[in-house]
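Much of what follows relies on a compact textual record of a protein's fold. The record below shows the convention in full:
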Amino acid sequence: MNIRKLALLAAPLALLVIALGAFVRLSDAGLGCPDWPGCYGQLDVPRDSEEIAQANAAFPDRPVDVAKAWIEMIHRYAAATLGLLILAISVLAWRRRGEPDSLLAASLSLLALVVFQGLLGMWTVTWQLKPVVVMAHLLGGFATLALLWWMILRLSPAAASWARDSDRSLRPWILASLVVVVAQIALGGWTSANYAALACPDFPACQRQWWPDMNFAEAFVMWRGLGVNYEFGVLDNAARTAIHMTHRIGAMAVLLCVGWTAARAAFLASGRKVRIAGIVAGCLMLIQIGLGIANVLLYLPISTAVAHNACAALLVLALITLGHGLAPAPDAQKPARLTRK
């Protein structure tokens, strides 16, 4: 099996891990297992009465909730499987490091990222859902998926540069759109980690006001020390409202920046594939904003909120695909220099 096939297996799994991570947060199952990497001191969830009694005795402050424990462990099993696939990619890239399509640097970077993701997963539990760690863990998941997708595109002949020179003026706009979307994803993670998703239960106003009482100074304190349990949040309503409103403002920035980029690609580009990619990115952006509004109006149903996370991931992939198609031909596709025997 080659690197591209392994990446094709790993990318959908990375998307699933992102969705499962959202499900864990929204189900309040982030501390469903109070230890790491196991669950109440074992590799699976305590099930029979004796195991549950032993777990409750070992963790008296965190009684076993079997349903939440299974939600957390399924996420960990999926993440561990993804880690093994990425390890296999790195080993294969190392063995083929002399070949132009080995993507050794990208593969090793991906492996380092997954190891760091594991540490963030551990700190998420041991530091009791500290928001900055939860947000970083979310961004790490998106970065893993994005890098896997870039590797797939890089190793796919059909995905090589397919734009005309006149379309390359879109590249700065695509980069700007990616920056705005990633910033909005970070804001979304911060909103979720601070339990601020329903701080504004109405739309388009917030608490029946266009500019309600907000506390931005408290809303974005990144580090509050260790030993604090952040389950269900520690901020007051004014701080949570500030976070929620900032996320809404970020959505407007996404609408303007990605909307402009997608419209230019869809209607002004000369290449057919560029136009299609622009249409896909624009549609995903509109769906994403619609899901965000539905989260408020429907009082944050889990299915809609998970779809909101998954759609954000797909939007990132669409922008990466568009950017890759507009990039110059990679150096690896150029003829190799002659070397002495």
